[in-house]
Q: What sequence folds into this?
């Protein structure tokens, strides 16, 4: 999606009135985006891309951005919730079959427009005559439901182990954060955490609980966090590559 077969770089250029400098941003779904000021001369781009080629390549590798010509599998055949050690098979079936499973389904997912999906017996049943975008919406809603079912319990267990109290917890699909903690003690967790290895999930839970005591990223905060997780700095570095664990349907 970024490096063509001839070695040249594929990108999207955006001009912004608020941009003061050139910004390069790599995502799994959009590839390389370059944001520049309105006065930017496009003739300067080749030298910038040449200088930043290694950074772009490493960012694409960390995020597992598909190469040009590689099939873009947005919806996988299986979804593995690593934190639960559970695998779910994704199947496309008729609306009639989905409706028959509603009564005994583990989860019932419905979009605002009325599209229906169910989780039944380790399978996520998606309507076969529905466009990819709608199926992705159903899967995202399913992941949020799963997160709300399990992540608060995980957080409570970890909080009890380290003796830190929090006010409440919220589960969402946050765009740029794995978690956050408000000054009032409300912890927000990203439902995608269920897709991460268990030691990274544990780290994020401890990371946010530590913010209850230290609402910043001061040295005092990091010192305290390392009393909760002696490998905190190593785990924090691992989180830079965490998106490689996330299927494309949950990256959008």
A:
């Amino acid at each position: 999606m970024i490096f063509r077969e001839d070695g040249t770089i594929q990108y999207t250029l955006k001009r912004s009135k608020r941009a003061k400098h050139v910004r390069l941003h790599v995502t799994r779904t959009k590839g390389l985006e370059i944001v520049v000021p309105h006065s930017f001369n496009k003739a300067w781009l080749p030298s910038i891309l040449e200088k930043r080629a290694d950074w772009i390549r490493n960012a694409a590798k960390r995020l597992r951005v598909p190469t040009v010509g590689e099939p873009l599998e947005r919806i996988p055949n299986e979804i593995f919730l690593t934190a639960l050690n559970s695998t779910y098979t994704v199947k496309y079936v008729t609306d009639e079959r989905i409706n028959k499973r509603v009564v005994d389904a583990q989860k019932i997912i419905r979009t605002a427009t009325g599209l229906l999906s169910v989780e039944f017996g380790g399978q996520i049943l998606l309507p076969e005559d529905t466009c990819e975008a709608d199926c992705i919406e159903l899967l995202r809603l399913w992941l949020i439901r799963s997160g709300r079912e399990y992540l608060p319990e995980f957080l409570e267990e970890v909080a009890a182990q380290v003796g830190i109290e929090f006010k409440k917890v919220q589960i969402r699909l946050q765009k740029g954060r794995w978690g956050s903690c408000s000054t009032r003690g409300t912890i927000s967790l990203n439902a995608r955490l269920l897709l991460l290895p268990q030691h990274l999930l544990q780290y994020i839970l401890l990371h946010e609980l530590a913010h209850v005591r230290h609402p910043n990223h001061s040295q005092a905060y990091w010192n305290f966090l390392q009393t909760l997780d002696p490998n905190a700095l190593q785990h924090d570095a691992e989180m830079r590559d965490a998106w490689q664990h996330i299927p494309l349907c949950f990256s959008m």
About this structure: The mean pLDDT is 91. The chain is about 35% helix and 20% strand.
